[in-house]
Amino acid sequence: MSNHQSLNTKEHAELRIHTDHGVERGDAVMACLIVPHEFRQVQGDYPILFRRNDDGSGFNALAMLGFENGENLYLEGDKWDASYIPLSMSIKPFLVGRPREEGGEPQVHIDMDHPRVSTSGEGTRVFDEDGRPTPFLERISDQLGALHAWFQETPAFFQALERYDLLEPFSLDVPLSNGTRQSLVGYHIINEDKFFALDVTALDELRQTGMLTPIFMALASLSQLSGLISRKDRKENLG
Question: What InterPro entries does the database record attribute to this sequence (predicted)?
Fold first, then answer.
């Protein structure tokens, strides 16, 4: 369940947020949404895969964190073992809400039922004693604004990939050292051969529209699959 509220000083003056990580903080997910603007940072830690929306209307980009629902192999107690945490995870429990008026600016909302919301008086303050946003909230607001803008641009990226028929189905079946197997099915990746076979006109269009870098980053990220498998193997062997 969720309880979304528009963030304001009247109702949330004493609000505090847990900023550590862990299963109890809502971080136990096998994948999280990312946007192409993040691919450069994401590819250094996580495999980037694509998945078609449930309604078939398009694709989403995902940073893969595990192989099973509720599994984040980057969690080590209250630590997240990676140099970069995707924005869709680092902004929680905040989200972008609808503007108060038609054509207005999007508002900062908060899910008051999220496990990061502190009910113990511990955690990082959202507003200071004078009701002003703390540096923590200012950073979150900047991240929300960037993420909202980048999500608006994401459909153009997938339209370009589909226009040049660059997406191909992907599945992975991996034997682990303890005799079990792990798999990923229902995903897509960029077809590297088709990409490098594009003519100069197509490549120039992708360059001018800013699509080349995220394509290269997505391809480079596939080298992180071996690291994800190693994390799973260690977890299984430790029981």
Answer: SapC
pLDDT above 80: residue 30 = yes
Strands 59-64, 94-97: pairing is unpaired
Average predicted confidence (pLDDT) for the chain: 93
Instruction: State the Cα–Cα distance between residues 184 and 181, nearest whole angstrom.
Output: 10
Separation of alpha carbons 183 and 163, rounded Å: 29
What is the arithmetic mean of pLDDT over 181-203? 95
Total domains in the chain come to 1
- Phi then psi for 176, rounded to 5 degrees? -95, 165
21 Rama class: left (phi>0) / alpha (psi -120 to 50) / beta? beta
Here the tokens at position 176 are: 């682990």
Which range of residues forms the domain containing residue 214?
Answer: 4-233
Phi, psi angles (nearest 5°) of residue 137? -70, -35
Within a domain: residue 238? no
Q: What is the pLDDT of residue 1?
A: 63
Q: pLDDT of 54-76, one tens digit each?
A: 887 789 999 999 999 999 999 99
Q: Is residue 239 part of a domain?
A: no
Q: How far apart are the first and last CA of the chain?
A: 31
Give the phi and the psi of residue 180 in degrees, each rounded to 5. -85, 170
| Mean pLDDT within 25-53 | 97
Residue 177 inside a domain? The answer is: yes
Residue 85 CB neighbour total at 10 angstroms: 19
Distance CA 136, CA 139 (A): 5
Tokens 């600016």 sit on residue: 105
With 90 as the cut, is the pLDDT of residue 102 above it? no
